[in-house]
Predict the structure.
Amino acid sequence: MTNNAGTVPREFSPVVDRLRTEFAGVHQQSTVSRCVDAARHGAQDVTGRATPDLVERIARQHLQVLVLAFAERH
């Protein structure tokens, strides 16, 4: 799988794939990849590590918040 300019390390590809499927038709694939990458960096900064499970939970929450924010704007 290609992750938009390779921003997400290979070990997080399954996370990106699951979230792309979960949010298909809601968020663009590039948005999902950016959220996963941001979640990975955030987890690393805050906890000193970024496991795929933690990154997936954080990214999912970010994507859900984006859905709510866009719904409120419309």
